[in-house]
Amino acid sequence: xxxxxxxxxxxxxxxxxxxxxxxxxxxxxxxxxxxxxxxxxxxxxxxxxxxxxxxxxxxxxxxxxxxxxxxxxxxxxxxxxxxxxxxxxxxxxxxxxxxxxxxxxxxxxxxxxxxxxxxxxxxxxxxxxxxxxxxxxxxxxxxxxxxxxxxxxxxxxxxxxxxxxxxxxxxxxxxxxxxxxxxxxxxxxxxxxxxxxxxxxxxxxxxxxxxxxxxxxxxxxxxxxxxxxxxxxxxxxxxxxxxxxxxxxxxxxxxxxxxxxxxxxxxxxxxxxxxxxxxxxxxxxxxxxxxxxxxxxxxxxxxxxxxxxxxxxxxxxxxxxxxxxxxxxxxxxxxxxxxxxxxxxxxxxxxxxxxxxxxxxxxxxxxxxxxxxxxxxxxxxxxxxxxxxxxxxxxxxxxxxxxxxxxxxxxxxxxxxxxxxxxxxxxxxxxxxxxxxxxxxxxxxxxxxxxxxxxxxxxxxxxxxxxxxxxxxxxxxxxxxxxxxxxxxxxxxxxxxxxxx
Length: 501
Ligand SMILES: Cc1cc2nc3c(=O)[nH]c(=O)nc-3n(C[C@H](O)[C@H](O)[C@H](O)COP(=O)(O)OP(=O)(O)OC[C@H]3O[C@@H](n4cnc5c(N)ncnc54)[C@H](O)[C@@H]3O)c2cc1C
Prior knowledge:
alpha+beta; FAD/NAD(P)-binding domain; seven-stranded mixed sheet; six-stranded mixed sheet
């Protein structure tokens, strides 16, 4: 049999996505199956933002056998239970999107149907009152979920806030231990096969040529291989997501760290606040149609909790994705594959999910187009589902009389999102399948947070006397409050378990 395996993988870029890819591939293909080389340029540098994650990151750490406490200490991380959305529905209203479920099933019917009945009658508390995780976050507390808990009240998940630059540095050490060869230099030329157009090698500024069979493009927004070389094309989604800039600026912490990311809706977009152990990450994502850069910087600066620790950095982006994220022998990951604003902290998740999909569809040197097409379909569908979830945050707002918010509330939306909303209104259920990262609980958080009600709850709920349903819900809310009272503050939990030395 002809030896057809890929023997040389070249990862272009040493930001978060480059090092995540190099580590994961080196971990999977050990014993010299393939050689992995990563090229990074100190002259170009990394984007250096990207500090909030979703729980899926824990699987990445586990696969690499990374100890969570070691990871936290090396990246100045804090825990994240939820995102607090403040002012999104309208000014003064806030709600959480937790990594958790609500209440507990009663007679095998999901909790939210009981809540929807009482909510229609105006006797339910806000949905967050029935979520342990939202309440822990609201009180700036933290505890690890207990394994093997039979009650849904206790099943919650968590992610991290971390320093992006430290994360890449941490992964670099791990990658090098796993055998990744690191080359420092700037690529100035890309060599392609004359007939097929496949990338054969990249050339560095000092003339060295690095050849490969599979290239992972992690070169950031420009997409050095996927776009500048292969001209794959970009699907632009900015008519649905008009924010096209962010200004980022870290500041000193003056408060004990929250166990949630804060997303505050402001005049032409939204502001993030991400607490780390040593500082707070801040940024304002805005639409240049509705705000100048100067105004954005002014607004962000006025909203910092402590002294700024760096000059404001304005970053421009176009929301969308490459028409193919795997083209010929180039797979694009991270910013080179496309971009969705960090409202739900999904970029690093998408990097991870693309690495998993690549490993599942790993090619040999024949590059079977079936694998490529499957990979592209999966990545596209996943990204479109995330896109719809993000669009919903804007579209559902009730901030009447503000030009940016009026524009996004009255825009047309993708049919797939329209269908999701309609289905919920009619059935009280969320349309979903395996390619959805955000499932029922996440959509319920949004529907409830924006005050969108379903016309129907499950008819079997009417089997129970209303007073009994009310009593069940009150019991759940009360037991959550009691559980939260006994927990340590997030600051104390970090101090006692994983503080940076
Ligand atoms: C404002 C903002 C906020 C964000 N917030 C979040 C968040 O909260 N959560 C989240 O999950 N994600 C977030 N992201 C996304 C996250 O930052 C990125 O997904 C992540 O950092 C990955 O970036 P990257 O590695 O793809 O690119 P980069 O960090 O840009 O790295 C590119 C690499 O390519 C190298 N390179 C480029 N050109 C060459 C060349 N010619 N030769 C050699 N090397 C080259 C560079 O040196 C660098 O090492 C955010 C992004 C932005 C813009």
